[in-house]
Specification:
single chain, 143 residues, 3 helices
Amino acid sequence: MIWKIEPSGVYNRVRKGLSVSVQVRYSFYLEPSDYGYTERLSEEYVPINENGKNTFKKTGKLINVPFHNHIVQFSVDVTDEIIEYTGSYLLDIIKNHYSLNKFDIDESINILNKNDYSVPTDENILKGEIKVIKIKNNKLWQQ
């Protein structure tokens, strides 16, 4: 099993003057040696515009889709080390749970709901925006 950060799930979350946090979506994938890997493969679709209508076309290529996603909200001062540690920590818990149960983790897991907020000052909102950009550009977490 491996984890990646899904860039579309990373953003600076400002809650109506109450708090600001950096939200990170961790996606967990099975590897070929993992139980149930072939059941998680899905045919890839690409968007096309056909006769003025937006639609999707099958490519014939199988892609590995995440079997579990987990969202964590961090303070805007979160370090890369904490983001990395959290991904690895979640992966360890998921691996243990998955090896014991061998059933759909999306329906059964309830782990680490860490919500860490900062006061929503202009400075913290800017810090959050900068952190989001750095996370989205860290290719190590998305390979």
